[in-house]
Every structure is written in structure tokens, then in C-alpha cells.
């Protein structure tokens, strides 16, 4: 760029005045504008469709509380080897989560490929087992429209185990018809394994399938469920983005830089504990110590 400091307009560096006509001025202006550096806007991390996508903040189970209260969910979780998953305490990074889901590539349900901040993220079920310290064992089943078929699964036995001997597989399933401990297991499944934002009053086929394996002590492959559900979230428009705890852990393992990223720390309300039971409508009976529905007669217990 031509230096102009200390020079009058139209004066050359040798001290001779040079008269610039209209065409000369236009040429000079054009030269000046062409040398102005162009500001390039940063490329968005993810498509516009993800700008307003909501995330589901992860939860952590209060094992101490439920152990003291004698809830069977503690043993159900430990039998499946999932205590590390239900204890995972990580902040959520909304922008990184959106990038994680937006960049998922089509792949088999045995693994997942994506990238975040230029870092390739590629893992299979066995690698996810290592990242989360949970077993890569047990039944693999998936169907979001109807019952899972095959692998020895009996849908009639499933619904009757959950809802009683008169239950029928073709009926819609509601949590109000579940015993209390099964109802809380359903809530835990819907926060940690098959996360959703609401609709906790209804039990889906996949939720019932998963609960059945917990209650009857049948191993179920949770890494498979997580990877498959991540693909499902990616494929569904406007689906809430779940697994914030898990995704943070995955990104840590792949060396993603968190510097300067906006994050959401877990709050006390993000712990599944005594407060969760209260929000679900349960209270502890003062005389017997049993947990009952708040609107039940004080002498009536489940």
C-alpha cells in the first residue's frame, strides 16, 4: 500500500505537486479499496437446523440415598455393571454437543463416527465400553415402533412382569400402572440410557424392553443402546440432544480442547434422589417409613 504520511493530497514523494483529475481520483479510490483486507466470517460449527436445538442436561443417581432406603434399583444397576454410568458427573457443553450430533456420519449400529473442533471422533462398542467403564455384553435389541423380536425376548412375559398378570402387549403402557420401584426404574432409564425431555407418564416398547432386562437380571448391552439412540437422535429433526455427561467424557478421551467453551455445571436438581421422588408424587410414610403416593390415603401402601 502507498505510504501517504506527511504528504499533501496530490503531492509526490519528491516534492513536486501533481494534479490529479477526476479519472485519476477514481483510479486511486479503486486502488485503495482493492487493497483493503477482506474480513471472512468464521464458518459455522454446525448447520442452521441445529442453532435452536435443545440439549438434555445429564443426571447422576444418588446411590447413597437409595441404598439407605433399600431401593432395588441399586442392585439392578450393579448387576448390569452400570454404576459408573449412573455416577458419571460431568458438565454439559451445548455447542460441542450440537457439533457432535450434526457431524455424525452414517455407519453401522456397532459404532459411531463424527468430529468436533477438527478432531475426528470414531469409536465402536468395545471402545465405548472402555471409555465409560461399562460392559459390552448382553442382549442387543432395537425397535422404536413396536416390540423387539428375536433373541429369546417374550413380550407377553415382559408386560406381565411389569404390569401384572392381566396386562396385554397390545395395550398402551403407562407409568401410573407400575409398582413404585418399577416406576422409578423407568425414570432412571429415561435419564441415563434412553434420555427424553418429558412424557414420563408413558412407557415405550424400548423402555419396557430395557426395564424387563434389569428387573429379571438378564444382561442387556447398554453401549449398543447408547450408540443406536445417538444415531436416532441425529436422524430425527428437532429431537432433544441427549447424553451430555457421556459426550463430555467421550470428548475428553479424544483430546478435544474445552478452553473458552460455554458449559453448564450439574445442579442439585440434576441428581436423582429424594427430591426426584417428591416430584414424581411420592412421600415417605411417617409411621411405617415406606414410600407411598402423596395423594393416597395415609393408611394405604403400595
Class of secondary structure makeup: mainly alpha
Low-confidence stretches: 1-20
* CA-CA gap between termini: 84 Å
Largest sheet: 2 strands, parallel
Beta-sheet strand percentage? 5-15%
Provide the succession of SSEs: HEHHHHEEHHEHEHHHEHEE
Count of β-strands: 8
The Rg value, from CA coordinates, equals 29 Å
Q: Strands of the biggest beta sheet: in what spatial order?
A: 1-6
Mean pLDDT: 87
Shape: globular
Task: Report the total helices.
Answer: 12
Helix content: 25-40%
Organism: Cephalotus follicularis (Albany pitcher plant)
Pfam families: Transposase_32
Protein name: Putative plant transposon protein domain-containing protein
Biased composition (Basic residues): 14-25
Q: What distinguishing features does this structure have?
A:
single chain, 302 residues, mainly alpha, two-stranded parallel sheet, two-stranded antiparallel sheet, globular, Transposase_32_dom, Putative plant transposon protein domain-containing protein
Amino acid at each position: 500500500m502507498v505510504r501517504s504520511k506527511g504528504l499533501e493530497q496530490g503531492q509526490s514523494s519528491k516534492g513536486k505537486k501533481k494534479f490529479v483529475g477526476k479519472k485519476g481520483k477514481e483510479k486511486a479510490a479503486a486502488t485503495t479499496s482493492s487493497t483493503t483486507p477482506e474480513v471472512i466470517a468464521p464458518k459455522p460449527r454446525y448447520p442452521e437446523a441445529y442453532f435452536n436445538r435443545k440439549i438434555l442436561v445429564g443426571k447422576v443417581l444418588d446411590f447413597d440415598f437409595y441404598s439407605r432406603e433399600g431401593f432395588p434399583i441399586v442392585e439392578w444397576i450393579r448387576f448390569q455393571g452400570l454404576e459408573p454410568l449412573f455416577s458419571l458427573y460431568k458438565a454439559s457443553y451445548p455447542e460441542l454437543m450440537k457439533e457432535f450430533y450434526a457431524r455424525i456420519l452414517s455407519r453401522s449400529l456397532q459404532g459411531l463416527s463424527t468430529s468436533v473442533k477438527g478432531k475426528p471422533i470414531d469409536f465402536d462398542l468395545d471402545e465405548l465400553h472402555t471409555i465409560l467403564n461399562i460392559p459390552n455384553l448382553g442382549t442387543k435389541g432395537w425397535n422404536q415402533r413396536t416390540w423387539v423380536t428375536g433373541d429369546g425376548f417374550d413380550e407377553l412375559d415382559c408386560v406381565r412382569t411389569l404390569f401384572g398378570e392381566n396386562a396385554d402387549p397390545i395395550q398402551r403402557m403407562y407409568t401410573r400402572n407400575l409398582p413404585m420401584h418399577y416406576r422409578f426404574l423407568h425414570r432412571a432409564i429415561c435419564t441415563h440410557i434412553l434420555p427424553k425431555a418429558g412424557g414420563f407418564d408413558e412407557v415405550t416398547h424400548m423402555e419396557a424392553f430395557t426395564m424387563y432386562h434389569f428387573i429379571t437380571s438378564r444382561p442387556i448391552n447398554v453401549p449398543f443402546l447408547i450408540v443406536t439412540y445417538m444415531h436416532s437422535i441425529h436422524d430425527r429433526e428437532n429431537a432433544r440432544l441427549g447424553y451430555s455427561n457421556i459426550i463430555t467424557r467421550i470428548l475428553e478421551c479424544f483430546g478435544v480442547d474445552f478452553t473458552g467453551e460455554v458449559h453448564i455445571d450439574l445442579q442439585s436438581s440434576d441428581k436423582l434422589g429424594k427430591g426426584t421422588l417428591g416430584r414424581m408424587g411420592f412421600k415417605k410414610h411417617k409411621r411405617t417409613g415406606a414410600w407411598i403416593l402423596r395423594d393416597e390415603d395415609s393408611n394405604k401402601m403400595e
